[in-house]
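Listing S7. Sequence submitted for prediction.
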Amino acid sequence: MTSFSQRRGRHKIFIGMAPGVGKTYRMLLEGKYALREGTDVMVGLLVTHGRVETIAASEGLELIPRKCLRYQDVDLDEMDVEAIATRRPQLVLIDELAHTNVPGSAREKRWEDVEFLLLSGMDVYSTLNIQHIESLNDVVTELTGVIVRERVPNHVLATADEVVLVDVTPETLQERLKDGKVYAPEKVAQALTNFFKRKHLVALREIALRQVADRVNDEAAIKPVRERMMVCLKVVPNIHRKRLLRRASRLALAMDAQLTVLTVHDPYKFLGREETLIMEECQQMCLDVGGNYLEEESSDPLETIARIAREEKITQIVLNQSKPSRRQALFGHSIHEQLRRKLQEEEIDFYLIAEETPHKTQEID
């Protein structure tokens, strides 16, 4: 019998619009970062779908073997919740939150297994596609013609301590599908003409964005002050800058948040004509969406961002999620993680907006 801790574990959900956006990959990377920081981390359940990059991302993480259950003369594998409870790591990584367990299991749904582990004091990272949320079931069926039978009650998302939206463009996801990074080659053509049609992905992406924004807006409703969002832009020729600012402005609008746009550049670096035009363009875009534009000179941009966040009482920070360098991947020194550490005493939520790249990417679901 497992003895329950007085402390309830923290639940972080990585959510996306569809399979293939990079939820599992991102969960594994954050799990490995926590491991490097000294947290006892284990993988409770991992579904790779044979994806090479996902398998590679799981290397170095301890995996709890699945247990075998026999149902109607067939042997089926399931997550071994009892083994996890006995091993009792600080953090458990669990894929496919909406999964239905084999009949005869202690609990019917995987989200119920996660609740059991949270009540026993363990933190859990999990993954979820937007179409598996109960209240969105009819909407997704109407949009795509696909009936989603495995569903998660709304309260699971509502009570999560943190929800991370893992986002790519419909075009990027379709390219991943064509490259065989989502499904086996023989399933690609059918997927592209059904669930993965561009119009379906555009609609699902908008639903995912609204769902996360509504969740934060609900939290804001019980706070005595208005949410304050800050988006941090790079002063470099960057095709993703406009997209980042526009996404941030939509989030700010959905949350009724005050928007601040911060640009930090090195005072010892000469700004050429192109970079000067970029700064002016950022300022004009900020004014166009009703934001407050701030420009800072600093050789330590992270410290400057942290200082401005405190001074402006920022509650939401939006950052560009660029592809990590080899050193960042190995040692966890990504910009958003460094900034999280600097602001760990503040109640600030982070939103990472993935870059839209025409080339192949390693971040998969």
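Caption to Listing S7: primary sequence and predicted structure tokens for the chain studied. Residues 166 and 332 are 18 Å apart (CA to CA). The chain has two domains: 11-171+199-214, 227-354.
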